[in-house]
Amino acid sequence: MEPATPPPAPAATSLGTGVASYYGRRFHGRRTANGERFNMNEMTAAHRTLPFGSRVRVTNTSNGQSVIVRINDRGPFIRGREIDVSRAAAEEIGMIRRGHSNVELELLDS
């Protein structure tokens, strides 16, 4: 029996680079722009224009760590920031200490 072939990685469209920040405890349990409750332990994010449900790969350019998040909120509303990720996503890419990081964003095909 041959080993199973892993499914192909989803195709990605580069959205460029920018600054990511994160939000956590203060917003935990509050409603997001799409109506669901924000859970800081899930892999979610806020973006100003991407459709809700979009999946985005966020890669910290300083350490190469990446995470896939689902867009469920609007923001960030701070000039110069491209995306706000949940605390769990921020932990995955090593940006908790600084609170923000330069990132590369890629929109993944569903």
From TrEMBL:
<keyword id="KW-0449">Lipoprotein</keyword>
<protein>
    <recommendedName>
        <fullName>Endolytic peptidoglycan transglycosylase RlpA</fullName>
        <ecNumber>4.2.2.-</ecNumber>
    </recommendedName>
</protein>
<dbReference type="Pfam" id="PF03330">
    <property type="entry name" value="DPBB_1"/>
</dbReference>
<comment type="function">
    <text>Lytic transglycosylase with a strong preference for naked glycan strands that lack stem peptides.</text>
</comment>
<keyword id="KW-0961">Cell wall biogenesis/degradation</keyword>
<comment type="similarity">
    <text>Belongs to the RlpA family.</text>
</comment>
<keyword id="KW-0456">Lyase</keyword>
<dbReference type="InterPro" id="IPR034718">
    <property type="entry name" value="RlpA"/>
</dbReference>
<dbReference type="GO" id="GO:0071555">
    <property type="term" value="P:cell wall organization"/>
</dbReference>
<dbReference type="GO" id="GO:0000270">
    <property type="term" value="P:peptidoglycan metabolic process"/>
</dbReference>
<dbReference type="InterPro" id="IPR036908">
    <property type="entry name" value="RlpA-like_sf"/>
</dbReference>
<dbReference type="InterPro" id="IPR012997">
    <property type="entry name" value="RplA"/>
</dbReference>
<feature type="domain" description="RlpA-like protein double-psi beta-barrel">
    <location>
        <begin position="17"/>
        <end position="104"/>
    </location>
</feature>
<dbReference type="GO" id="GO:0008932">
    <property type="term" value="F:lytic endotransglycosylase activity"/>
</dbReference>
<dbReference type="InterPro" id="IPR009009">
    <property type="entry name" value="RlpA-like_DPBB"/>
</dbReference>
